[in-house]
Amino acid sequence: MILDVHPAPLLERLVPSTSGDTFTVLDPSTGEPIAEVPRVDGAAVGAAVEEASRVLPGWAATAPRRRSEILAAAHELMLDELEPLAWLMSLEMGKTRADARAEVRYAAEFFRWFAEEAVRIGGELRTAPGGANRILTVHRPVGVTLLLTPWNFPAAMAARKLAPALAAGCTALLKPAEDTPLTALYLADLLARAGVPEGVVHVLTTDRPGELVERALADPRVRKLSFTGSTPVGRALLRQTAERIVNTSLELGGNAPFVVLDDADLDAAVEGAMIAKMRNGGQACTAANRFLVHTAVADDFAELLSARMAALVVGPGTDEATQLGPMVNARRRHDLATRVESAVGDGAKVHTGGAPLDRPGFFYPATVLSGVDREGVLSVDETFGPVAPIITIADDDDAVALANASEYGLAGYVYSRDLGRALAVGERLGVGMVGVNRGALSDPAAPFGGTKQSGLGREGGFEGIYEFLETTYLAADW
Ligand code: NAD
């Protein structure tokens, strides 16, 4: 374990000393600086691509069993070091201790899952329909990969990309979000100790992501972009990767409907809503973003949910008692405040919360609104925070129509005591993932991803490794 629960020794060990430019990482619960991190320049990006491409053949040729053992060692190390890693995320991102511990377990599981997948990369043999020849398919690593991750799950989003990339035999340039670079530096250190050879993984920290990414994508040796983040940035990156037709996977924003039908078990629905809405302080792409509740139960649901939300203990993520930490930065908090004001201006009723908290740091309270306009900003756009807008629905068809009236299609939730009815509604939602009487979705064994403007490709599951593999077929007569 590299630290006790104190930042100084950890930061000293993790943050490379540099004579070049740096940027400051803030503690979102105070707004005070925690660390100075290198602002990687174009030359360093070039050097990283050079090394990642030099060691690529050796790593790609490493026996799958050996790659698997290294990933399994990473899984073990992460669990051994759960406390310091979780604490670091609470410090730099503001998530609660419970959320941070859950994220380390979830992130570690990707290394275990892909350790198991590394030795199962197979091919196929088919007979050509004409019968004259056979077709043999084989897979090989796509090459040097560029992995861009958001700040909301700094360990899990990196693990969800690094684990399949390494299992497939690719090398990786990981560019973490500027708000949370420390977790990525920790992960790189951990992977080296697990046995990943030097040069296979590089962490490129910067607060000027546009420049760095443009530089990396211009290099013909970079053959894959895997991005998790917002839809506008994903769209801009897709334009860039179109230049050289770089293999691109995108995990983008969401606007998840949480449908509560008139026969739902309301206690279970509220329990699920607390998970789907409040995990990570509402800063999750799968977070329930719109509560579409049948008119017959909407008042009861609003009352029960508001009581739970109002009771949450707000404080720094590093405090054991905290149940809702700060937003990650001032911009995010301001964005929430503006959206809620707009909804209230459109006639929404505030049940609890509704305005930023007057204290240092970037705190916004758990907020429940009812009577929210179907066409308003809280209905049509992704709101990244602890805000629960309730919109009433008349029946199942109305719920499906409203749920699908969105440019996003990442996740959705349905609550009904009638499983057949819940599954029927769930199947009609135009999203990649549906929680049926369940507020939690993420699982390394499941294919994670969205439809429409929520992204391209799937991470995790049996599908995840193929995002990092190319297919070649060989035709032969025998
Ligand atoms: P963001 O798009 O602002 O940033 C994501 C990453 O892209 C960061 O590393 C950032 O530094 C980088 N980036 C920003 N501008 C860039 C540019 N011009 N060129 C290249 N890279 C750039 O998103 P965020 O605010 O960090 O994360 C929140 C968003 O991520 C939300 O929309 C959320 O829904 C989404 N998200 C999606 C998933 C998923 O799996 N679908 C998971 C988590 C978060």
UniProtKB/TrEMBL annotation:
<dbReference type="InterPro" id="IPR016162">
    <property type="entry name" value="Ald_DH_N"/>
</dbReference>
<dbReference type="InterPro" id="IPR015590">
    <property type="entry name" value="Aldehyde_DH_dom"/>
</dbReference>
<dbReference type="InterPro" id="IPR050740">
    <property type="entry name" value="Aldehyde_DH_Superfamily"/>
</dbReference>
<dbReference type="Pfam" id="PF00171">
    <property type="entry name" value="Aldedh"/>
</dbReference>
<dbReference type="GO" id="GO:0016491">
    <property type="term" value="F:oxidoreductase activity"/>
</dbReference>
<comment type="similarity">
    <text>Belongs to the aldehyde dehydrogenase family.</text>
</comment>
<protein>
    <submittedName>
        <fullName>NAD-dependent succinate-semialdehyde dehydrogenase</fullName>
        <ecNumber>1.2.1.-</ecNumber>
    </submittedName>
</protein>
<feature type="domain" description="Aldehyde dehydrogenase">
    <location>
        <begin position="16"/>
        <end position="472"/>
    </location>
</feature>
<keyword id="KW-0560">Oxidoreductase</keyword>
<dbReference type="InterPro" id="IPR016163">
    <property type="entry name" value="Ald_DH_C"/>
</dbReference>
<dbReference type="InterPro" id="IPR029510">
    <property type="entry name" value="Ald_DH_CS_GLU"/>
</dbReference>
<dbReference type="InterPro" id="IPR016161">
    <property type="entry name" value="Ald_DH/histidinol_DH"/>
</dbReference>
<feature type="active site">
    <location>
        <position position="251"/>
    </location>
</feature>
